Structure formats: structure tokens, C-alpha cells
Amino acid sequence: MTTPDEPEQEQPATPLVPAYVITNGRSLLDDDTLSLITLVTTAQDAPAVQHLDPEKRRLLELCSGGHLSVAEIAGHTQFPVGVVKILLSDLTQGGYLVTRAPIPAAKLVDRNILEQVLHGLQARFG
Amino acid sequence: MTQYLQDPIFWVLLAGILVAIIAISRDRKRISELRREKEDLKTHYANLENHYAEAVEEAKDRAEEATKTALKSAMRTLQGLAGEQQLAITKLQEKYGELHILQDLLDISHMNSQFARRAQSIAVLCDGWLGRQRSAASLYDVVRSAKGRIRYFTRVEIRAQTNFAIASRAVEPVALTLAELLDNATSYSAPETMIEINIRPVPKGVCIIVDDAGVGMNEEEKDRAAKLLSGENSPGVSGLGNPPQFGFTVIGVLAARYGFTVSVDSTSPYGGVRAVLLLPEDLLTTIQAPEPEPQPEPQPKEFPTVAAPRSMPPEESPVAPSTTLGGLPKRRRRGAMSIVPAVDSPDVPVRSSEQTASVMGAFQRGTQSGRSSTNASSEGPETQ
């Protein structure tokens, strides 16, 4: 049975386990819980991982090598960032992971100080 | 005696008897003829009736066949579209993963899965297309996939993870069967109750047990369910009843076609129905890697030289040197991470010591030959 608008056989497969099942239908986290550049690593005395979902075990494996940012993890797992954040937050609450808030960006130095330094240098060498 | 012979009455009587005998025999003949005729008519009638029944049966079959063909074709289109849509949604989820729209995309993905499942169920009843063949997958993933195809999936709790895997051809049928069981379980139990799934190995294969805390079924319903689940005399599309009840009929067809069994005749510990899906050994398989999920990640084209070591199985990573040649500590990662190239040092992908040695040797030979040919270096060729 073929019809003109029959689907193409070559279309790539959709994932067997959709993302909303992996998060078990939980809603997304607030933005400020985990940012893209929050660093994540495995906790020292993490509980046993046997009963965790394969996706979570994979995340733990990824993070076991050192600190990874949320964005990197999302890139490696190919899950949407929001989904990864839910999983990471779960793992953090379960004591498997520790997160480190991103180092705040350096503040711009006060313009006055820079000018004073410039003047000092000019007075001395200029 | 002679006096009788002369008596005219005697002759009259004799004639009368003769006439009567003739008449009776004629009547007898006629009766037997009539009887024969009646028999003929009867057989003729029976024949006609048989033919009629056959004709009706045939017409019904033909109508059913026509319905099936039409539905099958329509469902195939719908299934294809649902698949395409799911693919598009998955891509959108990746694209807008950081935004709030992701929540809506996840919801849409869920709705689309349910829609695809309904189309798939109808297709099964029409002996149609079951969807793309999946690659072999772990039982846990198949159960989760089934879970994602029903409306109230958050009520489903999967109790055990196992190392069983389902053979490629059985992934979709088992997922669809479980989805129908879970749909029944969630529909016939209170919204706040949970549905529990347990997986147990048995001598004949693996059992997937679905327990609900619903109202259960009475004997009549159980009998009807058992008949449908056996897959014999499938009522087909026209026999689904009103309102049509797909679940058990679909499961029966799938069970008969793929050789697993489903029973719903026991009671769950919570008083509801316990459905047991028994998968025989030949539908099970083993997956070499513990995780079937990680697809080959896209290999960046700018590092063609590091592509080769990526094909190494992750088991080899422990033998990789733990420091770089510069003496700096090297990140050691197992599994998926070893295939990720670092931007600033293409050396990070794990190599075996032999490979490292041969690469470094080639590098050294190259620099040596370069130096000796031009001799431009102030240090001169290194002796080695």
C-alpha cells in the first residue's frame, strides 16, 4: 500500500525515550537555579548509582572527570539545556553532584584610578 | 360362495375395493413423489440458505477488508506525519532548550506521542504498519517509551531496572502493548493512585508486571479480556463495540503476531488489575554496551586527524597516559567524553601508548628530516 504522501523511510529515528519522560514530566527550573556556566562535578561521597536512570548515570560519568559547565554537559548529552538542568538539579539534591556558582565577572576598574595611574606615569616618564 | 357370486352387491363391492386399491396406490405414489419433491425443495432451500450465509459472510469480509485497507492507508499517513512532527519537535527542543518555550515543546511532544499511539493501534487492527523498526533497546527504555505514550504518564512508576534488552523487531510491539495496558490502568483507577511496573526474570523469559489500584474486573470482564488477549478470532475493526475498546484487541493481535502472552486475570496487591506481559526468550537479546542511548556524536570536521582514535572502545581509556607529554595532568574521562575533542589541544582524545609513541615518532622523524635537509637551524641536526 503506497500513497503519494507516504512518509519517507529514510527519516532519522526519533529518540525511543522522549525528553519529557526522562524528566518525568517535571516543569522547568527557574532561571537562577543553574546557569549555563555553573560548574558541576561529582560529589566526593556520592550514594550508589544503581537505581538511577541511565541518563543520570551518564551525566555523572561525564562530570566525573572534573568540573564541567552546564552548557558543556548539555552539548555532550544532546538533550535540551532545560532538561539537563532538571536532571542536574535532581542529582545535586540527591547528593551525587556538587555545583559551583560561576565566578562573577570582573568588575570594570574605576576610571578615576586608571586616569590617576596614567597621570602618574606621564608625570614620571612623559 | 356361488350365492355371493350372483349377488350384484358383491361385484359392486369388489369393484369398489379395486377402485379403492388403485386410488390408494396412486395416492401413495403421489405422496411419495410429493415427499421426494419436498426433500428436494428442502435441500434446495438449505443450499440457498448456505449460499446466502456464505454470500453475507463474504460481503462482510470484503467490507472489512476494504475498511482495513482504507484505514491502513490513512493511518500510515498519520503515523508518518506524527513521526515527522516528533522529529521536528525534538529538533526544536534542542534549539530552544534554554528558553521557556521548552516546556511547551515538551508538552506538545507528549501529545504527539499519544496521537501517534492511537494511529498505531488502529494500524495494528488493520494489519498495517507498526512504525519504524527500532534498534534493539534495553527493556527499561522500552518500558519508559511505553510510559511516554499515555496521558497520565507521571502516575507510572517503574520499580526495577534490569539488564534485559528487547530484540529490534519486538521493540515497538512491546512498547505499544505496554502503553495500552498502562492506558487501561490509568483510565480505570483513581487519578491520585500510582501504577507500578515491576520486571521479573522467569524461566521462560521476562515478565513485565503492571499493577494498578483501580476497581478491578469482574469474572465476565476477565473472560472477555482473556478471549481478546488470546488473539484468536480477532473481532477486527468492525467488532470493537460502541464505544470502541481498542486496548485488549490491539494487544491480542500483537501478542499473536509476535509470540508473547498477556494476561489480566489476577488481582494486584492494591486491589486493582495485575497485568502480566510475558516476553519469551526469543524476543530478548543482549546489548553489548550497558547504554544503548549514546548515539555517535557528530564528529567535528576540523580535526580529521583525531578522528581515528575516537573509534576506540571506551574500555581502552584506562591505559591512556594520565599526564600529557608536557607533564601536565590530563583529564581522564571514560565513555562518551573520550570522543570530545578539546579545542586547544587536539591531543586530549585518548590514545593508546603505542599510538602516541608512533605519532610522536613520526613527528620527530619529520622535524629531523626537515632540519637535516635545509640545515638552516643554528642548532644543527639533532643526533638521536
Determine the number of helices of chain B (DSSP H or I, runs of at least 4 residues). Answer: 9
N-to-C order of helices and strands of chain A: HEHEHHEH
- Low-confidence sequence ranges of chain B: 290-321, 333-348
Largest β-sheet summary of chain B = 5 strands, mixed
The average pLDDT of chain B is 81
Average pLDDT, all residues of chain A: 83
| Overall radius of gyration of chain B | 40 Å
Instruction: Label the overall shape of chain A.
Output: elongated
How many beta strands in the DSSP annotation of chain A? 3
In the CATH hierarchy, the architecture of chain A is Orthogonal Bundle
Physical arrangement of strands within the biggest beta sheet of chain B: 2-4-5-7-6
At the fold tier of CATH, the topology name of chain A is Arc Repressor Mutant, subunit A
Description:
- The complex is a heterodimer of chains A (126) and B (384).
- Chain A is mainly alpha-helical and 126 residues long.
- Chain A has a single domain, classed as Winged helix-like DNA-binding domain superfamily/Winged helix DNA-binding domain (Arc Repressor Mutant, subunit A), CATH 1.10.10.
- Helices cover 40% and strands 8% of the residues of chain A.
- Chain A is built from 5 helices and 3 strands, in the order αβαβααβα.
- A 3-stranded antiparallel sheet of chain A has the order 2-1-3.
- The N and C termini of chain A lie far apart (89 Å).
- The model of chain A is unreliable at 1-8 (pLDDT under 50).
- Helix content of chain B is 50%, strand content 10%.
- In chain B, helix 3 (101-125) packs across helix 7 (247-258), helix 4 packs across helix 5 and helix 6 (219-229) packs across helix 7.
- Chain B has helices at 2-6, 8-95, 101-125, 139-147, 171-187, 219-229, 247-258, 307-310, 353-374, and strands at 137-138, 156-158, 165-166, 195-202, 205-211, 261-267, 273-280, 284-285.
- In chain B, strand 4 and strand 5 form a beta hairpin.
- In chain B, the strands form 2 sheets. A 5-stranded mixed sheet of chain B has the order 2-4-5-7-6.
- By secondary structure, chain B is of the alpha+beta class.
- Chains A and B meet through helix 1, helix 2 and helix 4 of A and helix 2, helix 3, strand 1 and helix 4 of B.
